[in-house]
Amino acid sequence: MACVCPNPEEMFGVLGPFVAVMVVFFVLLVLTAVVIIKAVLFCRIFSKAGYHWALGLLMLVPIACIVMLFVLAFGKWPIYKELQQFRRQPDKKPAK
Fold first, then answer.
1. Distance of alpha carbon 69 from alpha carbon 90, whole angstroms
2. What's the rounded Cα separation, in Å, for the pair 86 and 33?
3. What whole-number percentage of the chain has pLDDT above 90?
4. C-alpha distances out from residue 35 to 10, 30, 32, Å
5. pTM for this structure?
6. C-alpha dihedral sign at 58, 60, 65, 69
7. Which of 39, 68, 75, 96 is most buried, by the most CB atoms less than 10 A from its CB?
8. Rounded distance, CA 78 to CA 45, Å?
9. Backbone dihedral region for residue 41 (phi beyond 0: left; psi -120 to 50: alpha; all else: beta)
10. Are 36 and 43 within 8 A, CB to CB?
């Protein structure tokens, strides 16, 4: 069986570093996209729960993400506090 290039080691020696750099670049691009998507999702979750949206950025910090999950799971959400205050207000009927 004939080889297309006369010396495969010679071709790999030229293309090897280029392929390695391209693989590293692709991996970094994918990881950056995943981190950005994760940050946006957590920021939306925290803002819908009534917390400041920037608390979602703490989910990118290794130890803080565990603490923030406990805050979300067991803490009293500000949105529910506002809902309870709204329900306690007497009904105001519009004057005719």
1. 35
2. 40
3. 49
4. 39, 9, 5
5. 0.67
6. positive
7. 68
8. 13
9. alpha
10. no
